[in-house]
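Hey L., structure's done. Input below.
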Amino acid sequence: MMFWTKRVVIGDAERGLVYRNRRFERVLAPGVYRLFALRAQVEVFVHDIRQPDYVGKDADTLVAAMGARVNETFVVADIGTNEVGLVSKYGKLEDVLAPGTRKLYWRGLVPVTVERVAIAADLQVEAGAAKRLRQLGLLAKVAVVLDVPAESAGLVFVDNTLVQVLGAGSYAFWNFQKNVAVETVELRVQSMEVSGQELLTRDKVSLRVNLAASVRVTDPVAARTKVAKYSDYVYRELQYGLRKAVAAKTLDELLGDKATLDAEIFAYVRGRVEALGVEVLGVGVKDVILPGEMRDILNGVVQAEKLAQANVIRRREEANATRSLLNTAKLVEQSPVLMRLKELEALEKVTEKIGQLTVFGGLEGVIKQLVTLK
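Output:
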């Protein structure tokens, strides 16, 4: 009789599953058993339930074979196709089950609970669940995380279709069954530089121009969906606008009136990007760089112009001085008193440069003999 029985010992932290002729028969709790094995193949699989996850591959078979009794031995996680399972052990969230998952957890040693969370139509993870998953480092594994800073907009795409526009905040979206992608579009004013553009003016002068512009996104949906990359598009339009405006002007016009050049570029670019949800706030030419030989020519022209202006001013001042001297001579001729005053002025200037002066005949002698104006 002993040859027809099989002795099995199940410890306190173990459970045994009995299979007769490869079909499930029963569950063995802790204890010592003798199983009758006459003319039958009896197998006992002993499981350590300190790790409560059932590791066998026949979970569905066990559920079907045990029927309602399965809940006496296992915690059954049967997650619907539009649900997510949150598995907690000792009250602490430890795992996330994907939609459509069926999994068994041993009862009796480690307390296991399974919370079934419905997936909302917008796929957004409820804030409390997102917080718990983030703390455990599980959120990024099961969801797409979107952190939108201030002065920005968040765009959510599901299966390549835009479904939501979100303001500043932290968000998470379940990444099961559907392809979820997120993007952030900055709404603050941004600076753009167009540097080192080699251009030809209308009079065929080659020069390099540096341009600066300030832009901002006013419609994040249009900026993202109407063009592949709005920043590249705006940059190209600034290039085209600059090229068009410079080609229509001569070098003198460019150097003499930069404000008109800025206004023409601004008007062109604003009209081209407005439909894309992008606003151009300002455009300005920073630098106009000429080749070395052209700079020398312009410097020569400027120098000649300034020299000619200086000659004109000099001649004008000489003419004014001569005219003033003539007027003074006419007044002196008509007034003996004024003549005498001029003589005294001349005497004063002479005596300033003489260290010692000997006078004969008194002051009258000085006046009449030393200085005589004829």
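The longest strand covers residues 206-217. The mean pLDDT is 84.

-- N.
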